[in-house]
Design goal:
The structure holds two protein chains of two kinds. Chain A is an alpha/beta fold. Chain A contains ten helices and ten strands. Chain A has a domain of 171 residues: Rossmann fold. In chain A, helix 3 crosses helix 4, helix 3 packs parallel to helix 6 and helix 4 crosses helix 6. Chain A is globular. Helices cover 74% and strands 1% of the residues of chain B. Chain B has a two-stranded antiparallel ribbon with strand order 1-2. Chain B is globular. The chains are: A alpha/beta, B mainly alpha.
């Protein structure tokens, strides 16, 4: 393996909502083309972290973020064109949200927002993204039916296709498997393994085994503090650096 | 048969008491609900019964004759349609755009809280106060005189806060995750509103606007102060009898005059006027309901 390039660098990130601080100064790096997983119990700041990454935290009233995040060397906090940033980062939410548009429009929405209008380009892109999300075969005959009419697992793959539609360099998945069945989960995990060659994947998950299966490195967040970040060999070994990590992964917590 | 085994599934005094209570609750709620229907039917029935001698197509399209003691109500009907449409043409765009700003763009700061407070309070201002404001602002200060325009503007100000409130209601019924999904793929707020929020709230917005028709049509005080008159000579069946700067007749005003101001009017004429006013309002409401059902069926989640 060649030397690893840092694509996202977070240093001393703090996030607070009103007077309540939910992330207490965490620093870590994410390398290009790795699957980086973030584990930790509820309320540990995982989702807030993702929302800082693409600046959608701006939409929460009273949210404040300090510290620096750089994506490919550019400071996210002071960036002027947040729309390009968000297109660079694909985001998949925990619950599948099919927009109330047709399947085609769901995927074509982001490219259209970015100014792509040629029908043939859009057609090709829609097919490519749906194929990448392992959904094309199931929906290719009914692209004009409603995205919201799909089953939960299909909708989740649709949101993945949508996240891929703006050709991101980084794909963030926030607990993508909580609303879908194990079979679909495995299919999506296969998809992720393929996508890893093209982009960096950040996987926030409650399933430590999923992190173990997919990721090359894992970060353990607990109550807004970074407990440990290391390669999976260390984190999932019997001797991670911190006792809490071992306890959490092995279900001995609390 | 052992008593303990049976007791489990038979009515104990406690169960019977619960059932009685449940029945009482159910029937009292039901009777209150049915009371509304009975009241509405009673009002309509009473009005139509008394209006029957005067009600006819002629009554709708004819002009009042012999000092309103005979003839029809065409000028008042057209006047009301004028006032309602002009006032909504002013209030609806302003109200809907303001509501979109307040619901979709506004951050939670003191300025926007002040705007919200203003909207709520404006909605609570009595119509007679709006009337006086319209008189001062539009008739005198803006020198529009007693006119259709002054009256419409006054009605517009009166309906504006309610349109804002109902539009915000409709907008906030669109689930937040839809917006977040759009923002996540790099859409601006406007792109989000255009693609997802408006298409899914338009039925609610239109319903809210249309329901204001009935309010604008029914108000008497604001137009009485600013532009509605006792009598205006109009040709029978003329669809465009008024200029914007003319004074006009209106149904609500007409009802007031024929009932209280003109001596020796046939009772049935007042009632017939009321029936027409009510009919206009109910027709508009029926239209709003149809529109909502039609749009609701096209709603996509």
């Amino acid at each position: 393996m060649t030397t690893q390039q840092t694509t996202i660098s977070v240093s001393d990130l703090r996030v607070s909502y009103g007077s309540k601080e939910v992330i207490h100064g965490i620093s870590f790096d994410i390398f290009r083309n790795e699957i980086f997983s973030v584990i930790g119990p509820a309320q540990s700041g995982k989702t807030s972290l993702l929302r800082c990454l693409n600046r959608t935290i701006d939409f929460s009233p009273h949210a404040r973020m300090s510290g620096t995040i750089t994506v490919d060397g550019q400071n996210v906090g002071t960036m002027r064109n947040v729309f390009d940033l968000r297109r660079k980062i694909g985001m998949v939410a925990p619950l599948p949200v099919g927009l109330p548009l047709s399947i085609y429009d769901n995927v074509a929405f982001a490219p259209r927002c970015a100014g792509l209008t040629h029908k043939s380009d859009l057609d090709a892109l829609v097919e490519k993204c749906l194929t990448q999300a392992a959904l094309w075969e199931e929906v290719k005959d009914r692209l004009n039916s409603l995205g919201t009419a799909l089953s939960g697992g299909q909708q989740q793959r649709l949101t993945i296709a949508r996240a891929l539609s703006h050709q991101p360099d980084i794909l963030c998945l926030d607990e993508f498997s909580i609303a879908i069945d194990p079979v679909t989960t495995m299919r999506i995990e296969d998809v992720l393994q393929e996508l890893k060659n093209e982009m960096t994947i950040i996987l926030v998950t409650n399933l430590t085994q999923q992190a173990r299966r997919l990721a090359s490195r894992t970060m353990f967040l607990y109550n807004g503090d970074l407990v440990e970040v290391d390669t999976n060999e260390v984190i999932f070994s019997n001797t991670p650096a911190k006792r809490e990590t071992y306890d959490y992964i092995n279900g001995l917590f609390g | 048969m052992s008593s303990t085994a049976v007791a489990r599934f038979t009515g104990t005094p406690f169960v019977r008491k619960k059932e009685r209570l449940q029945a009482v609750a159910r029937w009292s709620f039901f009777s209150m609900a049915i009371l509304m229907v009975i009241l509405l039917l009673a009002i309509i029935g009473y009005l139509v019964y008394h209006a029957a001698p005067s009600l006819s197509w002629e009554f709708l399209v004819d002009v009042p004759r012999r000092g309103m003691r005979e003839g029809g109500i065409w000028p008042a009907l057209v006047g009301t349609i004028y006032l309602v449409f002009i006032s909504l043409a002013i209030a609806a765009p302003i109200g809907v755009l303001a509501a979109i700003y307040l619901n979709e763009y506004a951050k939670d700061n003191w300025l926007n809280r002040l705007i919200n407070l203003a909207v709520i309070n404006l909605a609570g201002v009595p119509s007679i106060v709006h009337a006086l404001f319209g008189l001062g602002a539009f008739v005198y200060a803006a020198k529009l005189g007693y006119s259709v325009l002054s009256a419409s503007l006054t009605l517009a100000i009166m309906t504006l806060p309610v349109i804002i409130a109902s539009t915000r209601e409709a907008l906030s019924s669109v689930p937040m995750p839809f917006r977040e999904a759009c923002w996540n793929v790099g859409a601006t707020r406007w792109q989000t509103i255009k693609a997802v929020v408006l298409p899914n709230s338009i039925s609610g917005i239109l319903t809210g606007v249309i329901l204001q028709v009935s309010r604008a049509a029914g108000e008497t005080a604001p137009i009485m102060f600013t532009g509605a008159v006792f009598y205006k000579a109009v040709k029978r069946g003329d669809f465009f009898p008024y200029q914007l700067t003319d004074q006009c007749m209106a149904l609500s005003m007409h009802l007031y005059t024929v009932t209280t101001q003109v001596p020796d009017v046939k009772e049935s004429i007042s009632y017939a006027t009321a029936v027409v006013l009510l009919g206009v309002v109910l027709m508009v409401n029926a239209g709003a309901i149809t529109l909502r059902i039609w749009m609701r069926n096209r709603k996509k989640w």
